Amino acid sequence: MARNVIKDQQQRELRRNQILTAAASVFTKRGVAVAKISDIATEAGLSYGHVYNFFESKEEILTVLVQSSQERYTELLKEARVGSGTVIDKLRWLISQYMHSSRTGTMYWVVLQAQATEVLSPEEKEAIHRNVHLNRDLLADILRDGQAEGTIAEGNPVELATLLLTLFHNTAMWEYRGFGEPSDLVIDIMLRLVVNNPSK
Amino acid sequence: MARNVIKDQQQRELRRNQILTAAASVFTKRGVAVAKISDIATEAGLSYGHVYNFFESKEEILTVLVQSSQERYTELLKEARVGSGTVIDKLRWLISQYMHSSRTGTMYWVVLQAQATEVLSPEEKEAIHRNVHLNRDLLADILRDGQAEGTIAEGNPVELATLLLTLFHNTAMWEYRGFGEPSDLVIDIMLRLVVNNPSK
Amino acid sequence: MARNVIKDQQQRELRRNQILTAAASVFTKRGVAVAKISDIATEAGLSYGHVYNFFESKEEILTVLVQSSQERYTELLKEARVGSGTVIDKLRWLISQYMHSSRTGTMYWVVLQAQATEVLSPEEKEAIHRNVHLNRDLLADILRDGQAEGTIAEGNPVELATLLLTLFHNTAMWEYRGFGEPSDLVIDIMLRLVVNNPSK
Amino acid sequence: MARNVIKDQQQRELRRNQILTAAASVFTKRGVAVAKISDIATEAGLSYGHVYNFFESKEEILTVLVQSSQERYTELLKEARVGSGTVIDKLRWLISQYMHSSRTGTMYWVVLQAQATEVLSPEEKEAIHRNVHLNRDLLADILRDGQAEGTIAEGNPVELATLLLTLFHNTAMWEYRGFGEPSDLVIDIMLRLVVNNPSK
DNA sequence: CATGAATGAGGCTTCATTCAT
DNA sequence: TATGAATGAAGCCTCATTCAT
């Protein structure tokens, strides 16, 4: 009997996403280098051998995961920039989105390991590096907008961006470090880093 | 004869420290889970078998390294608190010390991996967790001092401490992420997070 | 209705032969142990799962292939023996047939692997061995005929047969070894091995 | 205590040769693709993990083995050419050496598998091919010498060489095919292929 | 009949750790 | 003390085979 090709495709896509989701979870909880393919398979609810019908290797899973996470973040940054309100409002929205989006938030830890560790080949690390810089520059652009409109403090926008992202990216890791989940209130404190203080 | 014993002891201590230094370097560059004992031995300039005359296991090396790094940081925090000047001055000194001390600075990356990854046993991770909280509380104490003297902004001192350390700890990792070495100027920007702004 | 059953049977036989032909090709090109069921299925133009509707296992495909090749060779030998002309003529015809029949020729390489390798069980190997000896003996019979008629040199006919078959069987492998396709002229050279040289 | 460096070197060389010898044996008996590293290790009398302290991979073992076997054969051919007596004598010596040298003789089967099978990469196969042709040409040179001295039959020397080597190489495999060990008498029969028959 | 999703046995390879020298 | 040979647990990956559709 012939198969239902369309349903097969959907099922396949579903499986693939299950694996990616499971991988994100396992990479986050156990660490990228420590995570086993069989851990991922178990978490995804399939046999370890089947994972290889979707991905070439553990490395590829990591690469795909990091790439898509970085792309999603890029979209978020672009969306933030064209949003409404002052740049401060935009940043508040951006950070809130970042911290609450389960994917982006927890994925920072995975990206960090992929970038600062030798689990991937130099070429793959280089690609990640490029995207990290791209995204930093997008954040810097937003800050530059804010300096133009007077809501963001003076200073090298790239440096300010680096500081700001260092802060809110890592805040998303608080729960993994036993610091508890950060409240939304911390966003305003973070923004003190870059907000223009007219009183000085 | 007695002389030799003492010299032997010193020699042994020297070797041990060479290994620890090498381990810190290799753990930082390659990643804790990826690092091989033979990498460490090579970097330390001895044979891999000899490493086991100083440490029980790779796990022990990591544990000792993390522990001593955390203790050094504890000392730094205590020293900062009893320093001279306002709390702002003390924080400036603290962060500067943290970022420039090659040991403390790069060790954050190792501690982070040890804490948020399953390379160590739950018990060992628990010990690290305790020290992380201890140190955060010490930083919070300093901030509380500052709130009392009026130089630090209002707000939950533990939360402020968590934000501040999240920022300056991770700034020490900039070079591993391709963000370049942070200048001393960033310290004042970081402090905007917690400094009291009397103009409001 | 009855028609359909017959047609189905033919269709099934066709499929089966496609698989065997594909298997012969893949076994020859890639090696028996290296060949994958999916390689064979692809070459035969069907899905890998479907192969199991015709054969129990990879082992069975190989066994059937070898068996039928050996049987065909047996037929060839019998046909040669009852042919017309001198034994020299018969051998010339036999070798020519062997080398040009795509099946017999390339199949020698498969049989050799099956016989001298542990891809098959000892029992299956034993069966192949028996057929190999059977066929050698048939060739020896032909040589004996030739000795009787005076066209074949003296000597142990089994030994002569073994030498002769060693030569022409392996000549069929020249193209796989980069020696190019042998010309028909080589047959007469081969026959020097066994031809009676009245001049001595 | 310092090690005995010289003895270590010798021991290491010994081990390496044990592995190669074991590999030749296992590859011959079980088949190159079927042979397991652990089979080789067991036969060599060491643990499977230790094999990797001498060779990168199973592929490398095979390559080294084939290469050295081909080189040994090249030497044999060169030695034969400069030997004493007629070319017929030289060939008799050559074939006898080939068939009795346990290494060269049984290694043909391994070389054949490596050359006609996809266990090695195309590059490695290409290198083997080159050596096979080189050695065939050396044999052709000897035959050409014989044609000059009148002891070898007319005809394309490369073709004659190919036929002759096809015969005596594969004769070395008789025992693996259940044909029993060939007697020395067969050598003279083999030589009929190429010997000049003055009577014609 | 046909397809390819799914499983898991089994081989390859790495590397922490032990131990003879 | 110092070296590196030796071991084998454990993870990666392949692919024959099964089975739902």
TrEMBL record, chains A, B, C, D:
Record bears the keyword Glycosyltransferase: no
Pfam families: TetR_C_24 (PF17932), TetR_N (PF00440)
Keywords: DNA-binding, Transcription, Transcription regulation
Coiled-coil ranges from the UniProt annotation: none
Domain of life the protein comes from: Bacteria
Residue range(s) of DNA binding per entry: 36-55
GO MF annotation terms: DNA-binding transcription factor activity; transcription cis-regulatory region binding
Name of the protein described by the UniProt record: DNA-binding transcriptional regulator, AcrR family
Organism: Paenibacillus catalpae
Native organism taxonomy: Bacteria, Bacillati, Bacillota, Bacilli, Bacillales
